[in-house]
Amino acid sequence: MDPFDRWLEADSRLKAAVHEFIASCSALQNANPTDVSDPVLDDKIAQIRARKSSLAARGTIITRSQDTIDRVLARFPSRASFQGLPAELLVRIFGFAIPSHCRWQYTTWRNGLVKITSVCRRFREAAIGAPLLWSHVDFYLTDYKEDSRPPHLENLWLERAKKSQLCVHFYCQSNLTEDYLPPYTPKMPKLPQMLAALVPYAKQIVELDLRNFEFGHLVESLTKIRLAQSNASPVTTLHVQSIQPRRPIVDNSRSLAWPSNFFTGLSQLHLNGIPRAGSPTLLELVKALNSCPNLHTLWIINLFILEDKSVRNYPKINLRQLRFLSLHWLREEGSQKLLSLLRPGNARLHLEIDMVASPDYLNVNKDFITNFRVESLYLRHVEYWDYDDPEINYYLPCMRSVRTLVLSLDHCATGPHLSSLISKGKQNSHTPQLPNLRTLYLMGGRFKPHNSDMLKQIIASYSLNKLVLLSCIPYSQDYPESENEKAERRYKDVLDWIRRRVPIFQVMRNQHWSWHQYEQNET
After folding, report:
1. Which of 59, 115, 128, 285 has its CA at 20 to 30 Å from residue 137's CA atom?
2. Is the bond leading into 480 cis (omega within 30 degrees of zero)?
3. What predicted TM-score, i.e. pTM, was given to this entire model?
4. 398 to each of 242, 369, 395, 401, how far by Cα in Å?
5. Nearest to 212 by CA among 173, 263, 260, 252
6. Closest CA to 121 of 157, 97, 158, 87
7. 438 versus 187: which is more confidently predicted?
């Protein structure tokens, strides 16, 4: 037993003895003096009186040992303590209680920062003294039940943010998409109160996020906020996500017109799930995008782009600062029209498109990739695969400039798509189809033993600097069990081999992955 263990054990015994001694002193204090005539009791009192002086001596020894302990502990560094941290570092730590992206998903943490201020006075002073901590403001609503309580928590956030730039997130919980529930008219009595609380701070808003709203309420909210900003346009990031009801809403008589100043001055725009009744026409979308020439990030997902029958020639969309473009789940006609009008600058562009092989759509995509020398490409899988003729084969000829490829795979399409990345030459040699490729992301792959071997051949053929396997697993099925074990062993062996060949190799299991957010975090 080392001296530290001996001391800890002795201290435990001393603590127990002290508690026992104190209890005995209390019992002694309650002794009845009339019983002193008892010869046995008289003898015990004499012994206690004789030991009184030795008790004082033991106390002196313990006091001296305290000095020894202090000298020993001074030789060893103490653990870090919150009490010694500067306020600036405390504030950085508190910031982790407030997730910075899609914060409405973390409903259990909505009051996290408020709880921190109740821990102690120092925590409270540090948190309240840092307005940036309170600059992300969440408004949470429901459209199927009455809730007219004043937004006290949201007001608290806005007050403590002071003059900071604000990131405002509205999230509405709705049942309009549920088949088993009857349709209803969305009602949000709390929304006007929340907007009234926010309007005085409208000119401080730089990021606005409106998610899961019925479209009429969404337009109402955005209109009030943008009008309150007057000529000032501090909003640089706008997320707009509406719901797609499975059945008609009982009363949807609201105006669905888009105000003209929705998009002015934006650098990031995310449009997702706008219903057909509220979707802008192609001409409206062109004008909106041309009103934000400094746009560098554009997401358009699940949007029904309506064509203007009276318009023959559309103006070009000049976005010279565009760095990130994602077009997903659009009607093919709308997507190809939009791509044919876009004119990004000469800087590197990351493009995300659906891997569709229909001729018109394919030609527009290929022209865009070739003309603007797209170096970073994300090919999203389509709902139905052609396993005999993988869609990626149609895109490979125009992808010679691609240096970063994000490729969606599928249970049965893993092998065909992997084999498309290399061509077989003489004497079983393999040649890369994309000679400039340096970074490869593979998503959702299911690796049978021969698929693992194919991955190994790809790594051997290319000069990759980075490989990321996202939600990829060895092939598994209910039977036979021996094949599952063989696939797992082969997959593991190939991964071990890759780690020795590729400088940056990552295996991730995140199902809700965004290349844009991932690259932002990496940089």
Report:
1. 285
2. yes
3. 0.75
4. 35, 7, 6, 8
5. 173
6. 87
7. 438
